[in-house]
Amino acid sequence: MATRPRNGSGRANRVAPDGSTHAVADRGLFWGNRGALLDARGDLARHHRGRLWICCVLEFHCRHRTQWQPGRLTELYFLDEPTALAAGHRPCGECRHHDYRRFRDAWARAHPGDEARAGPIDRHLHTDRLTAGGRRTHEAALGSLPDGVVLAHDDGFWLVGGDTLHRWSHAGYVEARPRGTFPSTVTVLTPRATVATLRAGYEPIHHPSAGTATTPRP
């Protein structure tokens, strides 16, 4: 499944790492869905429907979609894969079959007691990403977090990348700070199960700006 994004006025279809959706024009590297989210008038009416939250490539086998249709899955867009993973999504098993297999293999290493199949993975992720009242986060030692994790700090979102953290925006990563300038314990947005999968060797696809964001001078 794939599509070409054209963000019309009022379409809150760009996803932040905390899973919230926003009406902005910036185009990311991936799209995905978490069910049919619109009411009969075409207004965004719910956060999700169902447990199948996937992350897809923008183009696949020349398929095209008529977007933002009530009664059909609602197209959502992500800056990059760490953004999608933080929001609770996983690679699509069709248009990203190779990446899905890499994710599944790393999942199996991280969760040896789980079945490494789409259904059990989605059920486990659904428990990790949501509470009865909304979004689930967790606290973790910053030094324990692998690359690709996104955390909340200083009224923003930050991508972990080696000794540096990169401030997220819809347009790309706009600032870099040394890991040592952050608290030793941080609030993590990426679900626990996905953090473990990243630690087990899954390498997500980053927006190019993650390698160009600069550290501000003191």
Description:
With 218 residues, the protein is of the alpha+beta class. Helix content is 19%, strand content 22%. The strands form four sheets. The chain has a six-stranded antiparallel sheet with strand order 9-14-10-11-12-13. Helix 2 packs across helix 4 (192-199). Mean pLDDT is 90; it is low at 1-9.
Descriptors:
single chain; 218 residues; alpha+beta; four-stranded mixed sheet
Given helix and strand content, the structural type is alpha+beta
Individual helix count: 4
H/E series, N to C? EEEEEHEHHEEEEEEEEH
Determine the fraction of residues in helical runs and give it as a percent range. 10-25%
* DSSP E strands, number: 14
Strand order of the largest sheet: 9-14-10-11-12-13
Query: Gyration radius, to the nearest Å?
Result: 17 Å
Brief description of this entry?
By secondary structure, the chain is α+β, with helices and mostly antiparallel strands.
Q: What's the structural blueprint in terms of helices and strands?
A:
Blueprint: E1 14-15, E2 21-22, E3 30-33, E4 54-57, E5 76-78, H1 81-87, E6 90-91, H2 97-110, H3 118-129, E7 130-131, E8 134-135, E9 138-141, E10 150-153, E11 156-161, E12 164-167, E13 175-178, E14 185-188, H4 192-199
Parallel strand pairs: 4-6
Antiparallel strand pairs: 1-2, 3-4, 3-5, 7-8, 9-14, 10-11, 10-14, 11-12, 12-13
Helix pairs in contact: 2-4
